[in-house]
Amino acid sequence: MLVALRSSRLLTSHHNADRAFRMEQQQAIYGFLGELQMENYRAREEDVDVWILRLLEEGSVDAANLNDCCLSGDLPAPSPSPDANDNGHVGIYRIDAELLNFNYLTGPRKSGPRGTRKRRTSPWNSMFYTSRKNNSRWTAKEVERLVQGVSKFGVGRWTNLKQNFFKRSIRTAVNLKDKWRNLLKTYQVHKKLHSCILNHRWWNGSGSWQKNNKCSTYRNDDLVIV
DNA sequence: GTAGGGTTAGCC
DNA sequence: GGCTAACCCTAC
């Protein structure tokens, strides 16, 4: 599975008229990713297929609605589906407190919690070591706030996100960007999700939705899963 | 200010 | 030694 972000396009090519609608779509997409990722911390050693199916069954993640968020920059926007709400928008974004109630730091992990790390200050001053600025692992609450922030402001608005969600935090805008990148990276690792999601309705690339596993592309302006 | 490649340190 | 996550560096 390839997940590619095209955030720069998001913020530059959209018409103002549909900007709000597209932002809501974006929120849905990243909320979905956030839920996947955060649950992933808890269920890292579990069968991902079973796990995502459970989420779908519980309704925590609605793959059908997710598909309704799909838009291609090259293809016409699909009509809102019957699953959409009264506004014609989809709203799968939801951070479930139960999903976040996991043992973030002590749960089963391939790599355990990291302690304080140190590094050389510079190649020519290698005799001295100094601590990095933060050296702390992200907490579940921080991840939650990051996902909320990205869902609200979108990817690439790290300074804005910092000011609104991490104002008193040690995390810098760059830290937020890097953490989000790590989250998506981990998300990509679980390729089994691909076949699972493809079993649900999917944009077939030729103007209609279908519910089978023949389609191989999920796409919107900001996210491409191939 | 941001994106993306590079570096580092902890854990297996 | 490999993998991973947090952090650093730098071009744009």
TrEMBL record:
All copies of domain HTH myb-type, residue ranges: 130-188
CDD domains: SANT_TRF
Keywords, comma-separated and alphabetical: DNA-binding
Source species, domain of life: Eukaryota
UniProt cross-references to InterPro entries, sorted A to Z: Homeodomain-like_sf (IPR009057), Myb_dom (IPR017930), SANT/Myb (IPR001005)
Molecular functions per Gene Ontology: DNA binding
Chain ranges of the Myb-like domain: 130-184
Pfam families according to UniProt: Myb_DNA-binding
PROSITE patterns xrefs: HTH_MYB, MYB_LIKE
PANTHER family found in the cross-reference section: MYB-LIKE DNA-BINDING DOMAIN CONTAINING PROTEIN, EXPRESSED
Name this protein carries in UniProt: Myb-like domain-containing protein
Native species: Sorghum bicolor
